[in-house]
């Protein structure tokens, strides 16, 4: 089972009920005001940039940074009617943003993938002004549960996800500590539980099919057992969830 196009995956996840809920909460807590300069570090295809542009009004600036040219192309297309948005190619580990120039910053489901989350947070500290507010959101994949009669295979699926599929699978629980170590003051910590009752939506977001195939190939699960587990998910009442941690901190 092939991995979906990453931009399409991110946009669909952002538009889901789960995505809209936590992203709206993150933006509200970030308290973006008209005239602010706001940084979206690791903006991807720009799913959040229009909402940020609306909040900064006609006198503010939104800066979207990503290292993937294809993502940046979609972000530019998505914001071509928003003159207050700047799209910059760069890495969250070396942000192309001047020191002390940002009023608000967010990084959303990016730290779990980068080589060094602490360096990314140090970069956010460098580019933000004193008094700035920063929003962080990351999953804790160690809390991933998928209801199935074969409990051991569900546990093996989570072990594969945390050990092989995600570089920093538990970074969500470490956000407050990492933020303080980077020099931020932690203001708010929220742990929410996205719930999936639809197998197709869960398959898209959690990669049930493709990650089970990979778990089988990596020896975490017997092939026939993995096939029965995945097939059985759609044959009854379905439930899956994980914990998403959102942290608001100040510079």
Automatic annotation (TrEMBL):
Pfam family, one: Methyltransf_31
GO biological process: methylation
UniProt cross-references to InterPro entries, sorted A to Z: Methyltranfer_dom (IPR025714), SAM-dependent_MTases_sf (IPR029063)
The keyword Kinase appears for this protein: no
Superkingdom classification of source: Bacteria
Keywords: Methyltransferase, Transferase
CDD domains in alphabetical order: AdoMet_MTases
Any one GO MF annotation of this record: methyltransferase activity
UniProt keyword annotation of Calcium present: no
Protein name per its UniProtKB record: Methyltransferase domain-containing protein
Record organism: Streptomyces labedae
